[in-house]
Amino acid sequence: MFAPLRERNYRLWAAADLVSVAGTWMQVLGLNWLILTATGSAATMGVVVMLQALPVLVLGGWGGALADRLPARPTLIALQTLRALLALALIAGTGHLWPIYAVALASGVISSLEGPCLGRFGSALVPPSALGSALALGSILSSAGRIIGMSLGGVLVGITGTSSLFALNALSYAAVIVALVAMRPGSVRTLAAAAPGDGGVRAGLRYIARQPVVLVVLALSFVLGSLGRNYQVTMAAMVAGPLHGGSAAYGMLSTVFAVGAVAGGVLLAGTGRSTLRVLVAAGLTISVLQLAAGFAPTVLGFAALILPIAAGAVIFDTVVSTRIQLDTREDMRGRVLATVGIVSSLSGIVGAPLIGWMCDTLGARGSLASAGAVTVAAAVAGTIVLARLKGVRVLAVLPLVGRRTAGQLA
């Protein structure tokens, strides 16, 4: 579990990441509060989310191609500096909506390059054998940073207003820049870079099209992400509807979900097993539990299902990221990671309104059960296809069955 922490550069990166994630969630809380108090419109918040996601969809391929060519460390330093300036711009533009829209759009443009750059750079900080544990630890830090950022931001916003949250977020990027500067370049693994004339985006698309295992993993990620990841929507619908809870119940479920996310990261980091077998097992488990959650009789019963769902979701997403990086060429990694980012953005853009519509049409229970049934079918189909691609028996892919044979599904 702690193998990545033996690397000095990774320790610097992990500490800086915790600070940065906390700052990011403080800014998210501050922005939401600023928009709601200024407009009273949840739809405006949706516009901001859309403006952040659209550039990743449009520019993600080009961002991945650039990430495969540019030196990661100086590129990340430049991008973190730009993010700090955007956070400061929010302070200057407080009281108006157009600076918020502009910052959201610019942030999305930065993310289209930053995402694949971060993926390439992070995988260079640890040996390949420790990559799964490093990504799992990253999930733990992200969950912890979210809890810290939202908790601290919730206290500060009532005392100092939103500007202080934006300022603290700008300062958090300085921690990342300091960590990048303090790293020892000689200890960073050199990943193969793309040649200047290798075809860019089109070469990346052709490469991915020839990787059937990667395509299946991406398809599973999209289906389970769009129909099985919008827990904030379904939790709120269940609490306000059939479970007859209040804000306290919703807050408790959010806390349970965060605890489950941390537990999933700890479990995966401890085992270090980021195989396709773990991926399909996690996908099947969370899909079945999601279906069952639609029939939970009480808030506590729903919480008992949410905990392992959150843990399994972190395991599934982390293994997806690990396999995508380990099963693709280094000189194509940025473009493949960009594709993962595009799939993730698409699943959010498609899934959130779809799940919301299903809750309004079928009810909260019907939405969870229907979406769960679809994700179960997708997970079973993905398991069968992956087993055939790898040349192993389907039963050998499932948990606790055929341990020796399943080991081939790595």
Structure, explained:
Helix 2 packs across helix 13 (333-390) and helix 11 (276-293) runs antiparallel to helix 12 (299-326). The protein is built from 15 helices and no strands. The chain folds into two domains: 1-190, Growth Hormone, Chain: A (Up-down Bundle); 200-399, Growth Hormone, Chain: A (Up-down Bundle). With 410 residues, the protein is an all-alpha fold. The chain starts with 7 loop residues before the first helix and ends with a helix. Residues 400-408 have low confidence and may be disordered.
According to CATH, the fold-level topology of the largest domain is Growth Hormone, Chain: A
Helical content band: over 70%
Strand count, sense and barrel status of the largest sheet are: none
Give start-end ranges of low-pLDDT stretches. Answer: 400-408
The dominant shape is globular
- Full CATH superfamily name of the largest domain: MFS general substrate transporter like domains
Whole-Å distance between the termini? Answer: 19 Å
Strand content is under 5%
Q: What is the level 1 CATH name of the largest domain?
A: Mainly Alpha
Radius of gyration: 21 Å
Given helix and strand content, the structural type is mainly alpha
Number of strands: 0
List the domain count as a whole number: 2
Shape-level CATH architecture of the largest domain: Up-down Bundle
